[in-house]
Structure formats: structure tokens, C-alpha cells
Amino acid sequence: MIKDKIIVITGASSGMGAAAARHLAAEGASVVLGARRSDRIEALAAEIAAAGGKAIAVTTDVTRRGDLKALVEAAVKTYGRIDVLINNAGIMPLSPLDRLKVDEWDRMIDVNLKGVLYGVAAALPHMQAQKSGHIINLSSVAGHKIFGGSAVYSATKSGVRVISEGLRQEMAPHNIRVTIISPGAVRTELLDHISEKDVQKANQDYVGQVGVPAETFARLVAFAINEPEDVGINEILFRPTAQEL
Questions:
Q1: Which of 45, 52, 78, 210 has the most CB atoms in a 10 Å sphere around its CB?
Q2: Does 79 qualify as catalytic in the annotation?
Q3: In the 3-class helix/strand/coil scheme, how is the chain assigned residue by residue?
Q4: CATH number of the domain residue 58 falls in
Q5: Domain tally, the chain
């Protein structure tokens, strides 16, 4: 059941994170919104509250371990526990390797990999003490396949899958569920991070043609959470029907 669950979401200021927050709050969850853009998550928390839901906003940069710890602790302080952590924050500045976008490689590793690990580190002590919990990590179709310009991004997203499977095995005795969700083409701001204009245009054109809305992700998150506690939905890979890759 989603109702009355305490759910922490990173990258909640837009796209899939914001869609998940709205959907889960409408189903009766209390949501704790983390993102760097304070104005966005504060507005979303107010919107959810105005609709009769429960939400708080905590400014969070997932590249800072202390920020993730503060985000989880805000959930525990406000609502008494943390039931679900959705490690949703991610960036996708695609580029061919020979363009040497080393700063972008570093940033992807910091956000997409270390950000997930920092979230896990913040949530696990509470979940182990409760003997219950659910960690949902965001991978991507790019975590299963490599395409033009995706080498480093795909490396981070396949890394998320490896970390998640290791975590699932280790947490089975603790009654903590782990789910990997790998989206295909979804219409969000993710493509705005691509600095190489030719790569950006190709991806925007493609996602514009076949992409599904962020609410698709929200429904699949809800499905994974809503299963009984003795059932772990370990991995969901979804694409638009029209997506070939």
C-alpha cells in the first residue's frame, strides 16, 4: 500500500521526480522533496498541500553527502520514519568521447553514481533499524545499451544497476526491497543538459517524436511500491512502444 508511506524523492523539482511526487501524494503518501532548486520544490510542496496531500521540501544537492543525510533526517524528524527512497536525480550530458568533455564526465559520475550511493548511505541505517524499507534507483535504457555519445552516461547507469543488485542481495535478510527502474525515452528536462548542440538536437527530435510523459514513470514507481512487502519488484525496464533502441 502507498497510503501513509513516507517517501523521499531526489531530483523532485521537475520531470519524473515531480510527477512521482504528485502521483504518490495523491495516493496518500507523505512525500519529502529534495532538489537544488528550492523555489521549484517549495512550490510543488505547496501545490500538493493545497490538493490535500502531505509534502515538505528540503534543498538538496546529491553530490554532497551531508545534504542527503539532512534530507533523510528531515523525513524521519517530520514523519517518524522513511519507508521509500527514490534516487531519481540524474543528468545526461551526452557527447562523443573524443570531444573530451571531462568536466561533464566528472559531473555525471558525481550525480548519477555517487549521488545514488550517498542516498543509500543516508537511508540504510534507518531502514535497517526499522527492519523495513524500499530503495528505488534510477537507471536507464542506456544502462542496458550503448548508443552514440552515451559511453560515460551508460557507464554510470549500468553502474547503478550493479550497485542495486548488490544492495538487493545484501538487504534481503533485513526485509529491505530494492528496485531498479530503467526508463526509455521520456519527455523531461534531461536533454537540456546536453551541451553539444548536434547531439542535443538529434536526441530532442527523437524524444519529441516517440517520448512518453513523466507520469508513465510515476505509475511504474507506484506499482513497485504498492506490491505487498513480501514481493520485491527488482527491475522495471520500460520504453515507448515506438522506441526501437
A1: 45
A2: no
A3: CCCCCEEEEECCCCHHHHHHHHHHHHCCCEEEEEECCHHHHHHHHHHHHHCCCEEEEEECCCCCHHHHHHHHHHHHHHHCCCCEEEECCCCCCCCCHHHCCHHHHHHHHHHHHHHHHHHHHHHHHHHHHHCCEEEEEECCHHHCCCCCCCHHHHHHHHHHHHHHHHHHHHHHHHCEEEEEEEECCECCHHHHHCCCHHHHHHHHHHHHHHCECCHHHHHHHHHHHHCCCCCCCCEEEECCCCCCC
A4: 3.40.50.720
A5: 1
pTM of the predicted structure, to 2 decimals: 0.96
pLDDT of residue 32: 98
pLDDT tens for each residue of 81-122: 999 999 999 999 999 999 999 999 999 999 999 999 999 999
Domain residues for 173?
Answer: 6-237
